[in-house]
């Protein structure tokens, strides 16, 4: 094997978002790099993740929106769905996004790119699936994650699919059983339903996306259950491949009647698994956690005190695009400067689920605050009577804000509601600036806008913190419906 030994300063395993970020930073320190990719270039985000999922959601939301036009007094039928055209646009636009990534990869130094899967032989040596061996002074692991599929689902045989399959469809199916009411299940399940696919969403323990605040979770359950069949605490007793598809026998609630239904596909959206189990990581001296993931410092991405760094979904921490990008760059920089290693402050946590209404989490979650024993106060604000939301007929939503007692600093928020991708950004920026609730309230709020609902929530929180008066009901100087 050693006849093909290549020696480099830095090997980066994986050329996704984190790997590409690591490469760009590492280049600032050395030109001796192996950027290794076993699968397809293009990144999970662009190929089968963030971008194609939003491309599927866009027509689904547009069609759903048309269904409320009647309430404005606009008459007319809801547009019919041409599944082939919908999927054609999803694929074409997706390919365009992938094309941009591939242009970047094309621009990388050819001598740096290695097309093979890598495994550890020892702490410095990697065996490649093409038979070559690489010895690297420093290594960045950026191998991403893959769908986690419970064994139970294998009974669906060839009708078992994941997000990796959906965005290659040529047409929409007639029916889909979506398992997992996490982020992927909610986004794809609701979009498929809105595009006329007979969709059932099967959850577990009443979980909804990333929500931990019981009040928001309950509200979200109500919203989604009123729109499509959502068995948030269902029990599935059997899954069978039958001639027409997948037969699923289930109870919608533990004490409800058992029912059997055949779906064209079973879509597994039951979480993701770090691609660390196929790296022979045990051939290194790294300390592993109970999931088999190397223990690392999230401020430097360094595994222990070693020359190995881990970034992106593979570290199982915050599987989001902007985090993978930040982590990749930090890992690449530190791999470049090793043995000197710098710590960098991380950004305020921010998560958005592109369901409708949108779900968002910012800063510390409710469950983290409860566990941390930090003294905090909270406020709740509904968007059902919020002026701008009612004008636009998007008045479904509930927001909970958490602030630190004594300092009045905003700590976090969980929410479901209209335009919450934007409100969540305002809140995360405020939290990152360590602003108090009083200081945020000094910022301008226009009228009439959805942000006025956020202002009401902040005023209520200020009062809960004993730092401001109870806001007047239907406050006219705040604008009607604020
Ligand atoms: C359906 C879906 C929707 C999503 N939507 C959003 C969203 O809206 N917003 C958001 O912020 N995040 C979203 N995400 C999450 C986001 O896509 C990921 O957090 C991000 O893409 C992770 O990047 P990464 O670099 O860690 O992994 P990847 O981009 O997956 O890169 C890892 C690379 O490593 C390669 N590899 C694996 N093992 C080896 C090996 N042994 N040797 C060599 N190469 C290897 C893989 O082939 C892959 O190319 C979504 C994810 C999914 C699945
Ligand atoms: N908008 C976004 O930012 C976005 C979109 C999609 C994905 N993502 C990222 O991808 C990650 C993975 O998404 P995901 O939805 O696969 O994972 P997830 O962890 O968000 O949700 C998985 C869900 O599956 C449920 N589950 C597990 N086993 C089950 C079973 N047997 N039956 C029914 N339900 C079961 C869990 O209770 C959980 O609610 C997310 O954590 C997120 O970071 C982000």
Automatic annotation (TrEMBL):
Residues 9-328 form the FAD/NAD(P)-binding domain. Coiled coil: none annotated. Gene3D superfamilies: 3.30.390.30, FAD/NAD(P)-binding domain, Fe,Mn superoxide dismutase (SOD) domain. Residues 352-455 form the Pyridine nucleotide-disulphide oxidoreductase dimerisation domain. Its cofactor is FAD. Keywords: FAD, Flavoprotein. The keyword Phosphoprotein does not apply. Belongs to the class-I pyridine nucleotide-disulfide oxidoreductase family. This is Dihydrolipoyl dehydrogenase. The lineage of its organism: Bacteria, Pseudomonadati, Pseudomonadota, Gammaproteobacteria, Alteromonadales.
């Amino acid at each position: 094997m050693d006849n093909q030994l290549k020696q480099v300063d830095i090997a980066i395993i994986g050329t996704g978002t984190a790997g590409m970020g690591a490469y760009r930073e590492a280049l600032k320190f050395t030109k001796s790099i192996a950027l290794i990719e076993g699968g397809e270039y293009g990144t999970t985000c662009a190929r089968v993740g963030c971008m194609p999922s939003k491309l599927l959601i866009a027509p689904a939301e547009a069609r759903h929106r048309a269904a409320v036009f009647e309430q404005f007094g606009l008459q007319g039928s809801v547009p019919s769905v041409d599944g082939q055209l919908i999927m054609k646009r999803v694929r074409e636009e997706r390919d365009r996004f992938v094309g941009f990534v591939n242009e970047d990869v094309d621009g990388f130094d050819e001598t740096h790119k290695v097309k093979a899967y890598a495994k550890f032989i020892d702490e410095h040596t990697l065996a490649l699936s093409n038979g070559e061996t690489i010895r690297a002074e420093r290594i960045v692991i950026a191998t991403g994650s893959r769908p986690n599929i419970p064994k139970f689902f294998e009974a669906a045989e060839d009708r078992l699919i994941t997000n990796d399959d959906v965005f290659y469809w040529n047409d929409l199916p007639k029916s889909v059983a979506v398992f997992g009411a996490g982020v992927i299940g909610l986004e794809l399940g609701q979009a498929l339903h809105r595009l006329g696919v007979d969709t059932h969403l099967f959850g577990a323990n009443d979980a909804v996306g990333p929500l931990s605040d019981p009040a928001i979770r309950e509200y979200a359950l109500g919203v989604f259950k009123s729109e499509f069949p959502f068995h948030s605490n269902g029990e599935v007793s059997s899954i069978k491949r039958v001639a027409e598809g997948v037969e699923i026998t289930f109870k919608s609630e533990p004490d409800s009647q058992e029912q059997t239904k055949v779906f064209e596909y079973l879509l597994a959206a039951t979480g993701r698994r770090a691609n660390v189990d196929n790296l022979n990581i045990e051939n290194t001296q790294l300390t592993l956690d109970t999931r088999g993931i190397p223990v690392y410092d999230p401020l430097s991405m360094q595994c222990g005190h070693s020359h190995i760094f881990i970034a992106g979904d593979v570290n199982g921490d915050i599987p989001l695009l902007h985090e993978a990008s930040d982590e990749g760059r930090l890992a690449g920089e530190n791999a470049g400067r090793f043995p000197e290693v710098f710590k960098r402050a991380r950004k305020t946590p921010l998560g958005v689920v592109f369901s409708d209404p949108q779900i968002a989490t910012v800063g510390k979650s409710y469950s983290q605050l409860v566990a941390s024993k930090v003294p905090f106060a909270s406020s709740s604000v509904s968007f059902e009577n919020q002026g701008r939301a009612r004008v636009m007929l998007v008045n479904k939503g509930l927001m909970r804000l958490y602030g630190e007692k004594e300092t009045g600093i905003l700590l976090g928020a969980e929410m479901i509601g209209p335009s919450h991708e934007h409100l969540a950004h305002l809140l995360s920026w405020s939290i990152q600036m360590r602003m108090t609730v009083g200081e945020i309230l000094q910022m301008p709020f226009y009228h009439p806008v959805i942000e006025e609902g956020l202002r009401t929530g902040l005023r209520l929180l200020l009062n809960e913190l004993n730092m401001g008066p109870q806001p007047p009901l239907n406050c006219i100087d705040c604008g009607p419906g604020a």
